[in-house]
Amino acid sequence: MKKLAIALSTALLSAAAFAQAALPSIEGEVRKVDTDAKKITLKHGDIPNLDMSGMTMVFRVKDPALLTQVKPGDKVQFTADKVDGALTVLSIAPVN
Ligand SMILES: [Cu+2]
User: What is the pLDDT of residues 30-41, one digit of tens each?
Assistant: First the structure.
């Protein structure tokens, strides 16, 4: 029973990793960070998985800890997807 649980959680983890990896990395620039509201304003390039072309807009962030890694003016690479109907940043990192 324990073995089955481990096998199952491993399968779930790799499925989650795959879903994350399948999202394209998007170029953007941080305009505003709102830690309290868990939101970030990004000027972004094309987002093929959301069928969106470049614009400046507000995203929700999946994890507020992501907002500690970037600041306004940073050039970033990020992934975004629709989560519970809201456009959400799932990962983000500054580009040097
Ligand atoms: Cu947009």
Answer: 999 999 999 999
Residues with CB under 5 A from ligand 1 (ion): 52, 55, 57
DSSP letters along the chain, please? -HHHHHHHHHHHHHHHHHHHHHSPPEEEEEEEEETTTTEEEEEE--BGGGTB-SEEEEEEES-GGGGGS--TT-EEEEEEEEETTEEEEEEEEE--
The model's pLDDT over 43-92, given as tens digits with 9 standing for 90+, comes to 999 999 999 999 999 999 999 999 999 999 999 999 999 999 999 999 99
Residue 90 Cα, ligand 1 centroid: separation in angstroms?
15
**CATH fold for the domain made of 25-94:** OB fold (Dihydrolipoamide Acetyltransferase, E2P) (2.40.50)
* Domain chopping of the chain, boundaries: 25-94
CA of 46 to the centre of ligand 1 (A): 8
